[in-house]
Specification:
Length: 295
């Protein structure tokens, strides 16, 4: 009862001050207000699976870049690194990470193979055009000779030699065409394999569509993918946003949009969510919270 009486008197006194000193209301509110974001949240790096191929230094830099996004938007640091922190960032390499790595490797191989295949096809088509022009000129010359009464023995001998040369070139081009067809079939087969892996990858991600996850129960941020630097920072910033208490947005360009992108710009919706989390409240509200907990 004594606590309740003291609290009531305090609230009454504050009310009197607001009524009597209306012109100082803004200053009084500022003095008697607080924000959940006044004290930075401490974090620390926990598990870093070596399969990611990342150094601790590079990861810490990425984390600082990610937390700095929210600090810049708010106007002061919202997170601070501390070995005694409860919020822990873990990099866990699981079956999703492995499949993602496999897909990236296959895509790189296909891109390289596709580039080589295109060069070979372009070279073949160029040589084929030269061959067809040579063949057309040869046939036109033979036709002209036939219409002129036929070739002399010496001309005939030269024509036969040129014909044999053209036939050899033609056969070589046919072999190259067959090889390119086989290479194209092999390429298409690998594309099919890649598509199957992507399908499997998407099915694996059905339960957790983001590349990271914030767990409020044990106060952890878990990162599953780190193949793209921009996406990694976006994912970290997204999960740190959840650690602040921010919710998802429906703006695809927002950091707090459910799906991961490489966008690192704080949108209007991001700022609204940040404002909701970090809005000013009067100290009496804080006292009331503490009173409710104590009773």
């Amino acid at each position: 009862m004594k606590t309740l009486k003291t609290f009531s008197i305090t609230v009454f006194a504050v009310g009197i001050i607001f009524i009597v000193a209306a012109r100082f209301r803004t200053e009084i509110i500022k003095v008697l207000s607080y924000s959940e974001c006044d004290t930075p949240i401490s974090y620390k790096l926990g598990e870093l699976d070596p399969k990611f191929g990342l150094t601790k230094e590079s990861v810490m830099t990425s984390i600082q870049d990610a937390t700095g996004i929210w600090g810049k938007a708010y106007g002061k640091p919202l997170f601070v690194n501390s070995p005694k922190a409860v919020l822990t960032i873990n990099f866990v390499y699981d079956e999703r990470s492995a499949l993602n790595t496999q897909i990236d490797q296959m895509q790189d191989q296909l891109d390289q193979k596709n580039g080589t295949l295109k060069e070979q096809i372009n070279s073949y088509e160029s040589d084929l055009a030269v061959f067809e022009k040579k063949l057309a000129n040869f046939n036109a010359r033979v036709d002209q000779i036939n219409r002129s009464g036929g070739a002399t023995p010496n001309e005939y001998k030269k024509l036969i030699a040129e014909q044999n040369e053209i036939n050899t070139e033609g056969e070589t081009l046919n072999i190259r065409a067959r090889q390119l067809n086989l290479a194209t079939n092999d390429f298409n087969s690998k594309v099919s394999d890649l598509n199957q892996n992507v399908t499997q990858f998407n099915e694996t991600l059905t339960q957790k569509p983001e590349e990271g996850l914030y767990n409020g129960n044990d106060n952890t941020i878990t990162i599953y993918f780190a193949s793209n630097h921009g996406e990694l920072i976006h994912t970290l910033a997204h999960e740190f946003g959840h650690a602040l208490g921010m919710l998802h947005t429906d703006d695809a360009q927002s950091i707090m949009y459910p799906s991961t992108t490489s966008s690192l710009s704080v949108t209007t919706q991001d700022k609204q969510e940040l404002g909701n989390v970090c809005r000013d409240q009067l100290f009496p509200v804080l006292w009331l919270k503490k009173f409710a907990i104590s009773t």
